[in-house]
Design goal:
By secondary structure, this protein is mainly α. The protein has a domain at 79-218. Helices cover 68% and strands 0% of the residues. It has helices spanning 3-40, 42-50, 55-69, 79-96, 100-117, 126-136, 141-153, 164-184, 202-212. The longest helix is centred in the N-terminal third of the chain and has 38 residues, at 3-40. It is elongated, with a radius of gyration of 23 Å. The N and C termini lie far apart (102 Å). The chain crosses the membrane at residues 6-25. Residues 189-226 are annotated as: Disordered.
């Protein structure tokens, strides 16, 4: 084979590789952003805001989360485990009536425990656990973030339980409940069907039942004492 032919083949190969790389980059540019936005929903907007509107930086962070945790397989809970955790959450809600701060702290610990049991990083690695949850439960992961923050700060540390502090605690617990429902569901988080099917699932029914039996203190303020 002549030297000229070898050079020609090398040039052709280089052109093919360059063309493939260009198509790959274009594909990422056209589909990466919309795909991440669909996958992460409100978590996408929150991450963009944290990066001061820098969409590319936010998408790099979200893409890294998918790369690290996208292949995580949630370990299913059996019926007994789901019932145990449901009972414990009910106890948390009941405790809220008399001890809001303690109830929120327990909810934070319970979420971390259930997530770890389902196969996510342990609660002692909160940031990593949160990142993994955001990949598979993006719609509700901010509820965990909120309840963890409030549990650590005591809703500002100086607020009265009869005032704004209780409202913040209540809001945090309600937000955390949505993620808790996801975690004890028999379905995988990111493959769970969303609304618009016209059908009521077993999980939907259980959530309605749970809300109907939730302590009144989670849904309205205590009446003022005379």
């Amino acid at each position: 084979m002549s030297t000229g032919l070898i050079i020609l083949l090398i040039v052709i190969a280089a052109v093919v590789v360059l063309g493939a790389a260009t198509l790959l980059l274009r594909g990422r540019g056209q589909h990466g952003g919309p795909s991440l936005k669909r996958r992460f929903g409100p978590e996408y907007e929150r991450t963009v805001a944290l990066h001061d509107g820098d969409t590319k930086a936010a998408e790099r962070e979200l893409a890294e989360r998918v790369e690290r945790h996208g292949d995580l397989q949630e370990r299913p809970l059996d019926g007994a485990e789901r019932q145990l955790y449901t009972d414990r959450w009910t106890a948390v809600q009941e405790r809220f009536v008399d001890s809001p701060r303690e109830a929120v702290a327990e909810a934070d610990r319970l979420l971390a425990e259930v997530a770890a049991v389902r196969g996510y990083p342990g609660g002692e690695r909160y940031e990593e656990q949160l990142a993994a949850l955001s990949v598979h439960h993006a719609d509700h992961v901010d509820g965990y973030r909120q309840v963890h923050r409030v549990a650590r700060t005591g809703a500002g540390g100086g607020a009265s339980e009869a005032g704004a502090g209780t409202e913040e605690l209540r809001s945090a617990l309600l937000g955390a409940r949505a993620l808790f429902d996801d975690l004890i569901s028999a379905e995988s988080g990111r493959h769970r069907a969303t609304g618009g099917t016209g059908r009521t699932t077993t999980l939907d029914k259980s959530r309605t039942h749970a809300r109907s039996h939730a302590p009144w203190a989670l849904h309205r303020s205590r009446p003022k004492e005379s």
